[in-house]
């Protein structure tokens, strides 16, 4: 596929970048998108090395060099816009974004969160699931709004919580499903099959009354 026919992505990371790697692999296949740049607020994020290996441009913008969130987010938006992305991807970007930043990318910024939203917004989701004695856990892909982990949901993956699960074992199983559902949602967006109208997600022109759900052994919905 010609580069101009591919959706341009900018991916924001803070750490290891395993979801970034899933997107890199998908773009190397038949995902009609290209990663224009990977930006991190942490210079030692391993995800930057993943990008380097794939020949993707990288930038580091250290939040510690800015007096407040607003100043940082203004600089970050300017850096992102230099690459003219059609979609901004949050892939383990450990920053709470300011309302102005979020509004700037309204309808074209996605996040993946390791819980079955709206349950367990924020951090330490695997621990909280185990402490609550939940029977299932999972991950959610959603459009980003000003509400933390509260934007319109697109697709969730569910996994059962086993009796002998630890935070680490549960996190590992959830992460393996994240690597499936995140590229899938990016694919739908790149194909022009996904949009946001107000707080509703439309897939193939039909409003989703609830997020699509992928069970542990289910085939991904097309």
Automatic annotation (TrEMBL):
<feature type="binding site">
    <location>
        <begin position="17"/>
        <end position="19"/>
    </location>
    <ligand>
        <name>N(1)-(5-phospho-beta-D-ribosyl)glycinamide</name>
    </ligand>
</feature>
<comment type="pathway">
    <text>Purine metabolism; IMP biosynthesis via de novo pathway; N(2)-formyl-N(1)-(5-phospho-D-ribosyl)glycinamide from N(1)-(5-phospho-D-ribosyl)glycinamide (10-formyl THF route): step 1/1.</text>
</comment>
<feature type="active site" description="Proton donor">
    <location>
        <position position="113"/>
    </location>
</feature>
<protein>
    <recommendedName>
        <fullName>Phosphoribosylglycinamide formyltransferase</fullName>
        <ecNumber>2.1.2.2</ecNumber>
    </recommendedName>
</protein>
<feature type="binding site">
    <location>
        <position position="69"/>
    </location>
    <ligand>
        <name>(6R)-10-formyltetrahydrofolate</name>
    </ligand>
</feature>
<feature type="binding site">
    <location>
        <position position="111"/>
    </location>
    <ligand>
        <name>(6R)-10-formyltetrahydrofolate</name>
    </ligand>
</feature>
<feature type="site" description="Raises pKa of active site His">
    <location>
        <position position="149"/>
    </location>
</feature>
<dbReference type="GO" id="GO:0005829">
    <property type="term" value="C:cytosol"/>
</dbReference>
<dbReference type="GO" id="GO:0004644">
    <property type="term" value="F:phosphoribosylglycinamide formyltransferase activity"/>
</dbReference>
<dbReference type="InterPro" id="IPR002376">
    <property type="entry name" value="Formyl_transf_N"/>
</dbReference>
<dbReference type="Pfam" id="PF00551">
    <property type="entry name" value="Formyl_trans_N"/>
</dbReference>
<feature type="binding site">
    <location>
        <begin position="94"/>
        <end position="97"/>
    </location>
    <ligand>
        <name>(6R)-10-formyltetrahydrofolate</name>
    </ligand>
</feature>
<dbReference type="InterPro" id="IPR036477">
    <property type="entry name" value="Formyl_transf_N_sf"/>
</dbReference>
<keyword id="KW-0658">Purine biosynthesis</keyword>
<dbReference type="InterPro" id="IPR004607">
    <property type="entry name" value="GART"/>
</dbReference>
<comment type="function">
    <text>Catalyzes the transfer of a formyl group from 10-formyltetrahydrofolate to 5-phospho-ribosyl-glycinamide (GAR), producing 5-phospho-ribosyl-N-formylglycinamide (FGAR) and tetrahydrofolate.</text>
</comment>
<keyword id="KW-0808">Transferase</keyword>
<dbReference type="GO" id="GO:0006189">
    <property type="term" value="P:'de novo' IMP biosynthetic process"/>
</dbReference>
<dbReference type="InterPro" id="IPR001555">
    <property type="entry name" value="GART_AS"/>
</dbReference>
<comment type="similarity">
    <text>Belongs to the GART family.</text>
</comment>
<feature type="domain" description="Formyl transferase N-terminal">
    <location>
        <begin position="9"/>
        <end position="186"/>
    </location>
</feature>
